[in-house]
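Re: [ENG-882] Designed sequences occasionally contain unexpected residues at chain ends

Forwarding the minimal case from QA. Structure tokens:
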């Protein structure tokens, strides 16, 4: 039987890609996202006069909110990338369970909410969620193949 520990499986590559994408989104929220996008104003149905009266306070507050959000999104990406490079890559079942739950609570929820508010970015976020989901689906598929072949050293059920 061949030792496959450390081998890059498609599931790990996809989870690593998801992590990298999330780091990119985090950087966008930290440094590039303006406090208010046209879609935000559309969603809130603000008139120009209303926006002018609340704009300065709102934009200042949202800048802080998006910096915090960006930090959390980037941190989620770093953790996903780290997981993809370590226990997920070694096909530890607990790593797949953690990655699955984290994916639903992070990019899955973000994509769902963006569909609910009819965001201009819902398609991009759905694509990112699908990459994460594909990493979990591939993990399950790879595990099933491994079980049929007699298991792999270093893998746990």
């Amino acid at each position: 039987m061949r030792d496959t520990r450390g081998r890059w499986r498609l599931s790990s590559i996809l989870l690593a890609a998801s992590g990298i994408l999330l780091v990119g989104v985090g950087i966008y929220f930290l440094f590039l996202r303006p406090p208010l996008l046209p879609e935000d104003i559309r969603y809130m149905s603000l008139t120009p006069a209303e926006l002018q009266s609340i704009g300065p306070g709102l934009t200042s507050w949202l800048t802080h909110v998006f910096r915090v959000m960006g930090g959390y999104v980037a941190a989620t990406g770093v953790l996903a990338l780290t997981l993809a490079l370590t226990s997920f890559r070694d096909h530890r079942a607990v790593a797949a369970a953690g990655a699955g739950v984290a994916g639903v609570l992070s990019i899955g929820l973000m994509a769902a909410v963006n569909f609910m508010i009819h965001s201009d970015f819902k398609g991009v976020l759905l694509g990112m969620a699908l990459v994460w989901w594909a990493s979990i689906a591939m993990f399950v598929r790879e595990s099933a193949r491994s079980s049929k072949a007699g298991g792999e050293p270093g893998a746990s059920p």
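QA comment: On inspection the terminal residues look reasonable. The CA atoms of residues 26 and 73 lie 5 Å apart. Proposing we downgrade this to a documentation issue.
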